Amino acid sequence: MSQEQKISDQTIQAPMPNLINDDMDFEIRSLDSMCINDSQQQHPWWYNFKYLTIGIVFGIVFVKAEIISWFRIQEMFRLQSFHMFGVIGTAVVVGMIGVALIKKFSIKTIHGESISFHPKKFNKGQVYGGLLFGMGWALTGACPGPLFAQIGTGALVISVVLASAIAGTWVYGYFREKLPH
Amino acid sequence: MEFLKQPWTWYAAGSIIGLIVPALLIFGNKHFGISSNMRHICAACFPANIAYFKYNWKKEIWNFFFVGGIIIGAMIAIHFLNTDRPIVVNQQLSSELAGYGVTDFSGTVPKQLFSFESLFTLRGFIMMVVGGFLVGFGTRYAGGCTSGHSIMGLSNLQVPSLIATCCFMAGGFIMANLILPFILRL
Q1: Is B83 at the interface with chain A, CB within 8 A?
Q2: Taking the model in full, what pTM does it have?
């Protein structure tokens, strides 16, 4: 990290004493490690187009493998089709092999940074939140990824579902300290 | 091209999704996950002085690009790789749904359930607004969704992710089999 970046990070953090950090009482990292950026490197904004490209591939798979279909999700939860179990199962196995290889050979990123992994800690939120999310998944027929893909296919009414999901996220943030974890 | 237009098999789709996990790690040390985008949106647009939304969301901009890609990918698939053939649904499910007046299997979402008109019916409101709320609230409470826990977490052999995944499934089974029939009857 260059001197300049260090200074800018400090100025960002200085006026926000409540900024989320690792020392919070119930293990913020284990609650929220997904999607938190672990890279310490700073790149020009257009470097993000590599993630756009990966997203495009993901979006095509979502549609072509019918993962975003409300009907496929109903079949999954009624044990009427193997399709979704096959998709998730294969993805987990391939992902496991990928992560194992990265760890075994200490593979670095294309920018030469070492790849970091963080263990998750158990908290009751994974049970309560998991059950609530599962219910929402069966109702809407979509987890968060497919919500975006459904909007992309032209089902514009799903933007209402997405807006409601964002509202749900906000309400969780508001009541977070009062909820059992 | 004809080959790509067929519905893709579970093993092809699963393999590609599985490869996204190491791809994101190798391209920039990013952990696969989607639901936290909704947290970043809250942090960017309505932080409201809530500690949970006070962090440097600009560092997570890559994730907006990622879901932007998902939307574009879905557009590409629907416009250039589409066959207009209705989805083949399990016989048992289609006859059950017919009992609730759901007979159109042409779209990714059933048009008879998810439309702007049905939004103002009790059934549509529960399925779209309450359902969406549960997705947003539940994923953050659980700390991840299908991608963050079930795929990334399990790939990294995390027991909490296995617990979360089992609870996702349990919640879904309860809703689809025990509660949804009553909602669909509304």
Answers
A1: no
A2: 0.89
